[in-house]
Amino acid sequence: MTDSTLIWGECLSAAITLAASGVPVLPLRAGKVPFGNCRACTGNACGGRPNMKTPGPCLCLAPCHGWAAASTDPDVINSREWERAWREAAGVAYHPGGAVLTVVDLDNAEAISWARAELPATRTVPTTRGEHWIYQGAMQSANAVRPGVDIKSSMSYARWVGSGTGTTVALPDVVRALLVRAPSPARSVTVPVLVGGGRCPHRSPAYLERGIAMAEQRITNASCGVHAAVFGAFLSVLATHGRCGCLTDAHTARLFAAAQAKGESPRHCADAWANAVHRLGM
In this structure, are residues 198 and 248 in contact, taking their beta carbons and an 8 Å threshold? Predict the structure, then answer.
């Protein structure tokens, strides 16, 4: 038996065991990344998977679309369409949100120390660089919620590295709260104002408040294409309020917080804001 055959057999066996327990699985290639889309699905031309909330069902049976391909169906996992991927697989991934789980991915010793001090004990799985803390309950996924800490749950995948030790406990509010945080203090955004004092032409402060609230809702409701939704919301707010001087740091902080709650990093928020300013010639 060759090493590649051994890896294939181990991956497939682990995947079948996980799927039988209700955990959606998919093969991972070298580098801990999913297999790329097939030719028909390149660029999401097929419309995507139904559970990605994009137009049209994808009838492709291959392990396309990353986390959205994860399955608990043994016929799918053992299918000819998945066989090539399993033969080339370097590991197994799973969709935590699909199993109503949340993985707190701790990348280093400092992050682990923080978790031990701040989070309820739960099932813990050692990883190459740190640990996965697994909780019962799903939430929005996000990267870099604090130094060395990522959240993997809905619309995300995590690498399967073993069952770990300990008992899985309910997802605590302290983990959910990691997505609701103030923008990075390093962020520096200057909002241009009109020459001559920037007198606001709007009818009332309520007009601005309604615009900010609508932009927050637009970002919050984005089920896919979050980057585009954030940029569009920033562009809309700046187009209406960016030249009159009525935007304050409190308003931009609300928009940045909404974007970061959807998984955007502070740097991405600042870049989207700067791009919107540039697009409007401000």
Answer: no
Nearest-angstrom CA–CA distance, 16 and 24: 10
For 74-93, how does the pLDDT look when each residue is reduced to its tens digit (9 = 90+)? 999 999 989 989 999 999 99
Backbone φ and ψ of 165, nearest 5°: -130, 160
CB atoms inside a 10 Å sphere around CB 237:
24
Burial 135-153 (b: 16+ CB within 10 A, else e): bebbbbbbebbeebbbbbb
Encoded tokens for 59: 């009838």
pLDDT bin (cut points 50, 70, 90) of residue 50 is low
The dihedral over CA atoms of 93, 96, 97, 102, expressed in degrees to the nearest 10, equals: -150
Pairing of strands 25-29, 91-94: antiparallel
Distances (CA, A) of 182 to 167, 235, 241, 249: 32, 21, 22, 12
Prediction pTM value: 0.64
DSSP 13: H
The candidate with the shortest Cα–Cα distance to 152, out of 134, 174, 164, is 134
Q: Encode pLDDT of 109-167 as tens digits.
A: 999 999 999 999 999 999 999 999 999 999 888 888 899 999 999 888 999 999 999 99
In contact, 82 and 63? CB cutoff 8 Å = yes
3-state secondary structure of 255: helix
